[in-house]
Amino acid sequence: MKILVIKFRNIGDVLLTTPLIKNLKMNFPEAQIDVAVNKGTEAMLKGNPNINRIYSYNRSYYKSLPKLKRFIEEYKFLKSFKNYDMVINTTEGDRGAFIAKFSDAKIKIGYKVNKNIMLKKAFNFIMPKPLLMRHIIENNLDALRIINKDIYEKKVEIFWSNEDIEKVKKLIPDNFIHIHPVSRWLFKCIDDKIMANIIDFLYEKGQKVVITASPDKKEIEKVNKILSYCKNKPINLSGKLSLNQVAYLSSRAKLFIGVDTAVMHMAAAVDTPVVAFFGPSGAFNWGPWDNELFESGYTKKSGIQTMGKHTVIQHDWDCIPCGKDGCNGSKVSECLMQFDMEKIFNIIEEKL
């Protein structure tokens, strides 16, 4: 049996499909499971023993082509997935629906397509429309529920190589705290001085800190600004590690502190306790998942919430979560610019 899972979304979204992939393998142990994702997100599935092949969709490449050539090349890509027995599209996007429509699969699972007449019959098993206050992991697992298959576990998984281990081991101390203070979406970041205060608080408590960020110029600049406010200087590995190496680094940490980003999900996936700051996003959708639990602990609209070993720090303002990229088009989320520092320090100290 050949199964294709489609997730044309961002890095964190792809990582959170791994419980679905694992349960597919447990329900269909002899199946070959392939996955189609956006280019740049493949690292979340690299080395996963439940996956046979990863296909990447290079959005930037197709966008760079003249219109006619782009149409022809994308059409070829979408039609190249014919020989599958089951196709699962885990998002509401048209590309996954086109793949399902062109496929010869007898089982086609996905969300109902309303806007494109061509795709209204792309699927013969329709997943329920995602509920607002429900974790993304549960939404993904609906693909199995709709065909009456069992959910055996809900663990998020990420893997790394021996080479990754050897590189990271040379760079990190024993018994440290991992801080990843940035997101590619800067409106998800807390105030720089607040993050600097957290770093200094940890050093006052005798802790060692390792800080990471992607090689992106804006992220590096933000880390440097945070460090300029610090009295103490943590080990700064920003821009020096791959995503899988960062995952291994998190697995060695005693605690992860960061914002709503893929690296937060990676830390939770390796069972490191997480303290995460949330602003515009809802923890009920995107909170760090505790692999030891079977049900989400994020039952409130906003506010401080926990799921097992993980804690989300978020104001309980009426406007939260808004889902916007900052307040009034500013690209800055006011709800992440001010916190009760004593309350934050108490939450962190409880996890040390």
From TrEMBL:
InterPro entries given in the database record: Glyco_trans_9, LipoPS_heptosylTferase-III, LPS_LOS_Heptosyltrfase
GO cellular component terms listed in the entry, alphabetical order: cytosol
Any single GO BP term: lipopolysaccharide core region biosynthetic process
Taxonomic lineage from the root: Bacteria, Pseudomonadati, Campylobacterota, Epsilonproteobacteria, Nautiliales
Protein name listed in UniProt: Lipopolysaccharide heptosyltransferase III
Gene Ontology terms, MF aspect: ADP-heptose-lipopolysaccharide heptosyltransferase activity
PANTHER family: LIPOPOLYSACCHARIDE 1,2-N-ACETYLGLUCOSAMINETRANSFERASE-RELATED (PTHR30160:SF1), TETRAACYLDISACCHARIDE 4'-KINASE-RELATED (PTHR30160)
One Pfam short name: Glyco_transf_9
Domain of life where this protein originates: Bacteria
Sections of the chain in a coiled coil: none
Keyword Transmembrane helix: no
Keywords (A to Z) from UniProt: Glycosyltransferase, Transferase
